[in-house]
Amino acid sequence: MSDNDPEDTPRNHLAFLALCGMAHSPDRALIDLLLSDDPICSSVRKKLADALTANGNNSGVRIEITKKGEVFSEIRSTYNLQRDTFIGRWVAKKVEVFGSKTKAVAAAAEHFSLSEKAIEKAVTYTVKMDAAIKGQKFPGVVDDQMALEISEHLYHARHVANEKARREGKKGIVEA
Q1: 35/30 Cα distance (integer angstroms)
Q2: Which of 3, 77, 84, 162 could tie 122 with a disulfide, CB 3.0–4.6 Å?
Q3: Spatial separation of the C-alpha atoms in residues 157 and 173, rounded to whole Å
Q4: E-strand spans in the chain?
Q5: Is 100 part of a structural domain of the chain?
Q6: 44 Cβ partners below 8 Å, 6+ apart?
Q7: What domain count does the chain have?
Q8: By the 8 A CB rule, do 12 and 44 touch?
Q9: CA 42 – CA 8 distance, rounded (Å)
Q10: Which domain holds residue 20?
Q11: For 28-46, what is the mean pLDDT?
Q12: What is the mean pLDDT of residues 8-35?
């Protein structure tokens, strides 16, 4: 902390001490600063980043963010499948541009900052899904795009339910 730092407020000072492990209630000091209108000074910002990354430079506390709950896991899984579908379709369009699946996968890996293996997995999932949902119709749904989106959503939901059942050692609902 610097005497010349205009953002150095009492709350920043307490948060800095908390992040150095020198506060009785570090969580309270951090919460007070984060909920206040005070700007967060650069030294507190750095200590907070150190505490979150636990990169070895932190001589104080370590903050670990955890994700809990089955619902969150299922939502995240569905999101990942939607992302994979987007990537799979992106690669299909790039195959037409590059004339090669290998080049399209490499371009996708660079574009999405993922490994080529992850891109291949997304492509495989999308191809399998497209084959399974091809031509599905729903009573009262006349819009082809809406029917496609409903089919994709149902396919993702079945896939997530089947993965959960497999983890629990049970038989899946319906093969996706």
Answers
A1: 9
A2: 84
A3: 10
A4: none
A5: yes
A6: 1, 12, 15, 16, 19, 33
A7: 2
A8: yes
A9: 9
A10: 1-65
A11: 89
A12: 86
